[in-house]
Amino acid sequence: MRDSRFFRVAVIGAGAIGQSFAASLFKEHIDEISFLDLRETPGFLTDERYGRLSRIHELVAWRPDVVVECAGHNAVATIVPQVLREGFDVVLSSVGALATPDVRASLSSSARVGGSRLIPIAGAVGGIDALSAAARSGLDVVTYTGRKPPIAWSGTAAAQEVNLDELTSPQVIFAGTAEEAAIKYPANANVAAAVAIHGLGFEKTTVTLIADPTIRLNCHEIYAKSKSGELRISMSNEPSPGNPKTSWLAALSLQQTVVNKVLGVQWVT
Ligand SMILES: NC(=O)c1ccc[n+]([C@@H]2O[C@H](COP(=O)([O-])OP(=O)(O)OC[C@H]3O[C@@H](n4cnc5c(N)ncnc54)[C@H](O)[C@@H]3O)[C@@H](O)[C@H]2O)c1
């Protein structure tokens, strides 16, 4: 249960997820929020309720209780290791960055040096708790299928291989491991990575990505077979009001992780 002490959070990335985080939790659960963002002065950052940090050393000097990352893979590779080394726990939104072995190694050695914790969010997908519990009994197979409308794949490798504008039926645009999927589709790697790190790992998790002109929402399906039973999860996610490429649920998952896992607020009926 949370005590009544003062709680301050540094947020790396003031985009759709960062703004929604502040709007939902400021004052109700968090007393002070400061943002570190590469962009100079986006409108949101002139909001005087929030602090502004322009360098990592300012973040360190501000002594937040926890640091929240919602900035992207580059921030995970460059900023997050430094923050972990300084001894601050980091809640990670850009889970897809963990698909790169060098990034994983750098984060885990930094957390060891700093005595800090890296806390990845479940993000846009559910059932992660059941998947990681089932992993304790031994997983035989884990598959993830990501199905999105063709427009969601524009600007990705799929656009070079398939005429996305003329699709009339679902088309598989990728089949392989979670590791290969993250390399070929880095901007879509977050869900596959969440499934991989809580299940069979990047090399043994099978991923299928589909461009589907018959759907409006981003759909995620997970299948796992373990000694303790089978698991099937199916989700259809509305986009975030602030960023059509981000699932609304990802922003909510970050809030839930900080409130329940970091602040330790328990739901009691
Ligand atoms: N886990 C999930 O399921 C899931 C789902 C959606 C998005 N995400 C991750 O969350 C991230 C944020 O999503 P969003 O919708 O808020 O994106 P967004 O583009 O709206 O905002 C990102 C913000 O981060 C800032 N930024 C980028 N690189 C930075 C850096 N190196 N240092 C500081 N600031 C930096 C940008 O200026 C921008 O303001 C995405 O990049 C993605 O990796 C995760």
UniProtKB/TrEMBL annotation:
Family matches, as Pfam families: Asp_DH_C (PF01958), NAD_binding_3 (PF03447)
Record flagged with keyword Oxidoreductase: yes
Extra remark: The iminoaspartate product is unstable in aqueous solution and can decompose to oxaloacetate and ammonia.
InterPro entries hit by this protein: Asp/hSer_DH_NAD-bd, Asp_DH, Asp_DH_prok, L-Asp_DH, NAD(P)-bd_dom_sf
Residues annotated as the enzyme's active site: H220
Biological process annotations from GO: NAD+ biosynthetic process
Chain residues that bind NAD(+): A124, N190
Residue ranges annotated for the Aspartate/homoserine dehydrogenase NAD-binding domain, each copy included: 53-118
Annotated Aspartate dehydrogenase domain residues: 168-254
EC number, as in UniProt: 1.4.1.21
Family: Belongs to the L-aspartate dehydrogenase family.
Purpose: Specifically catalyzes the NAD or NADP-dependent dehydrogenation of L-aspartate to iminoaspartate.
Annotated metabolic or biological route of this protein: Cofactor biosynthesis; NAD(+) biosynthesis; iminoaspartate from L-aspartate (dehydrogenase route): step 1/1
Record-level Gene Ontology MF annotations: aspartate dehydrogenase [NAD(P)+] activity; NAD binding; NADP binding; oxidoreductase activity, acting on the CH-NH2 group of donors, NAD or NADP as acceptor
Gene3D superfamilies associated with the record: Dihydrodipicolinate Reductase, domain 2, NAD(P)-binding Rossmann-like Domain
Species: Paraburkholderia aspalathi
Catalytic function, reaction form: L-aspartate + NAD(+) + H2O = oxaloacetate + NH4(+) + NADH + H(+); L-aspartate + NADP(+) + H2O = oxaloacetate + NH4(+) + NADPH + H(+)
Name of protein: L-aspartate dehydrogenase
Keywords tagged on the record: NAD, NADP, Oxidoreductase, Pyridine nucleotide biosynthesis
